[in-house]
Design brief:
mainly alpha; about 300 residues
Amino acid sequence: MTKTISLLSALLCTFIWGTTFIAQDTGMDDIGPFTFNAVRFFIGFLAIIPLALLFEIKKLKNEFKLDIKTFIILSLLIGLSLFLGSALQQVALLYTDVANAAFFTIFYVPIVPIIMFVFRKKSIHWSVWPSVVLCLIGGYLLTNFYDATVRLGDGLVLLGALFWSTHIIFTGMIITKYNLPLTIGAIQTLIVAFLSFLIGIIYEEFILTNILKEIDSILYAGILSGGFAFVLQIYAQRNITPAPAAIIFSLEGVFATAAAWFLLNQVLDINNLLGCFFILCGVLLSQLLPLMKKAY
């Protein structure tokens, strides 16, 4: 039953992430990307912290008795990874469209096992390598390579995928050691809000009237995605092994593309559709083949 709830949590988390690309895209008509992220994640923090205090305050002392230093280090690492991933993704949306941003983001799926192999000496399944090739082919087809501006945006999202990968890895490490998903979610959103504010205050203007113009997009991206979706991710990674979790999370691109078609009229041409197909095949290949080997 617990695993079923975690699977549903992962699916709901992925749906929220995918549809939030629309809010992220439309929410920058009057404000900059760092202003958007600062307000978005601070609202996410305000949404989570009451629940963390209500449900996890009594567990904090027992959990921290284990190793508070490790908790602080991992919290900073997931916060920094989330900041870099979300910042690059948000800035990229100024240069590329929702579909491209969503599909290049899911490059974290084949990146995760590679990082685990290089830095944590975890064994890597052979299926990762053909999946990476498929993702690269798909990325070439998906990108409007004749448009240098779009290519810049896609490159930023791809770089952000590296930090989404480290976020997933560090999240898996901290949640298996400390059963505090709400507290961890609150801490990481506060870190992202603070770092986004520091950069935004230097390079952008915090104008309240402009922020209020984007309040609908900010509330959706803040409360649902910046807040509860990341808590759902943390909870899901405690009860689901990485392979099926990664498969579910990769559906983020599918949800985002569908939302872009319906809400923003961002229709993909045949090359883009083939690119989507190759990327999804690569992502699923890297996860399903190891599962098949275990089954037999």
